[in-house]
Design brief:
This protein has two domains: about 5-145, no CATH class; about 150-275, no CATH class. Helices cover about 40% and strands about 10% of the residues. The protein contains twelve helices and six strands. The strands form two sheets. A four-stranded mixed beta sheet has the order 4-3-5-6. Strands 1-2 form a two-stranded parallel ribbon. The longest helix is centred in the middle third of the chain and has 20 residues, at about 115-130.
Length: about 290
C-alpha cells in the first residue's frame, strides 16, 4: 500500500527538468511537468503543494478530502496512518524529497485524479477486512495486487481497430510493431499510467514491460486533443475499477513490451529489434 524505495534510479539520475524530452513514454505528463522544467534543483514539497492549490478544481478523494502533499512519516501505528488509508481519510499524500518515484506518483495524480482516487478507495475496505480478521495489512488480495501492479507499472492501450488489440492479446509483437507499424500512428495509442513506469523510463532497459488495460475506442477519439484524451481515459478507468467486474487479479492485466512502440527506443527502427524473443515473448495465453 506504500510507495517503494528505489535508490538506484535516484542515485543514477540527478534532477533535470527536461526529462519529458527523452521519450514519447513521458508524453502524458509532459504538460504537467512543464511547471518544473526551469527548476535547476529538485522541487521542494512546497512547490508541489503550490501546484495543487493553483488547480481550477482541487483533486478530491472519494472520501471528499482534498489531496495535499506532506512529508513521509515514520512507521504508522494505526490503520488510518498507513499510506493508502491516510490518503483516503485525510487527503495527505506522503512524499519523499528528491525522489523520482514519489515525484512521478504526484504527477500521475495530476493527470488521472479520478482513476487514482478510485484505486485508493478500493484498497481501504480490503485492507480493513484483513486486519479485522487478524490478517497482515501487507498481505493483499488478488484485487489489490492487480490495482497495485497497474498503479505502479500500468499503461492503457487504446485502439479503434480491434484487430490491433487482438495482436496484443495474442502476443504477436512483430506483426503489431513492425508489419502494422504505420497503422499504429493512426489507430493505436499507448498511455503510460504507472508512476514506476515513468521512473524506469529515466534509465530505460530492454525488458521494460507494462501491465496494461486494453480499451476499444471510436475513431473520433484520435481527433481529440491530448488533454481531452487523458480526461476520457481517466474517467473510463475510474468507472472500470469502481464497477469491479473486468479486472479482479493480476492475470487480468495484459503484459506489453512497452519499448516496442515505434520511436520509444532509439534502436527499434530496425526489424531485427523485434526478433529478440527474450523481450518479445510468445506469451502465456497462446
Amino acid at each position: 500500500m506504500g510507495t517503494k524505495t528505489n535508490t538506484r534510479i535516484d542515485a543514477m539520475v540527478p534532477w533535470h527538468g527536461d526529462f519529458p524530452d527523452a521519450s514519447p513514454l513521458f508524453s502524458p505528463i509532459g504538460p504537467q511537468a512543464e511547471r518544473f522544467r526551469d527548476f535547476t534543483q529538485w522541487p521542494e514539497l512546497s512547490d508541489l503543494q503550490r501546484v495543487l492549490e493553483q488547480l481550477e478544481q482541487p483533486i478530491r478523494l472519494l472520501s471528499g478530502k482534498v489531496l495535499k502533499i506532506v512529508a513521509q512519516d515514520e512507521r504508522p501505528e494505526h490503520f488510518e496512518d498507513h499510506y493508502a488509508p491516510r490518503i483516503y481519510f485525510s487527503g495527505e499524500l506522503q512524499t519523499r524529497s528528491e525522489n523520482w518515484h514519489d515525484f512521478f506518483q504526484y504527477q500521475t495524480w495530476l493527470i488521472f485524479p479520478h482513476a487514482k482516487a478510485a484505486i485508493n478507495a478500493i484498497h481501504i475496505p480490503q485492507a480493513r477486512m484483513r486486519l479485522e480478521n487478524g490478517g497482515d495489512i501487507g498481505r493483499r488480495t488478488p484485487l489489490e495486487n492487480m490495482l497495485s501492479l497497474f498503479d505502479e507499472g500500468g499503461a492503457v492501450l487504446l485502439s479503434s481497430d480491434n484487430s490491433l488489440l487482438q495482436l496484443v492479446r495474442d502476443f504477436r509483437w512483430k506483426v503489431l510493431f513492425w508489419q502494422r507499424r504505420d497503422e499504429l500512428a493512426e489507430h493505436f495509442e499507448c498511455i503510460t499510467f504507472g508512476h514506476a513506469m515513468y521512473e524506469k523510463a529515466l534509465a530505460p532497459y530492454t525488458g521494460m514491460t507494462a501491465n496494461t488495460i486494453l480499451l476499444h475506442v471510436a475513431e473520433d477519439y484520435f481527433r481529440l486533443s491530448q488533454a481531452e484524451r487523458l480526461a476520457y481515459v481517466d474517467k473510463r478507468l475510474a468507472a472500470i475499477f469502481i464497477a469491479g467486474s473486468s479486472y479482479r487479479s493480476p492475470q487480468d492485466l495484459q503484459p506489453f513490451p512497452i519499448l516496442g512502440m515505434p520511436g520509444w527506443d532509439s534502436t527499434n527502427s530496425n526489424e531485427s529489434y523485434y526478433e529478440n524473443t527474450h523481450y518479445f515473448r510468445p506469451g502465456r495465453r497462446r
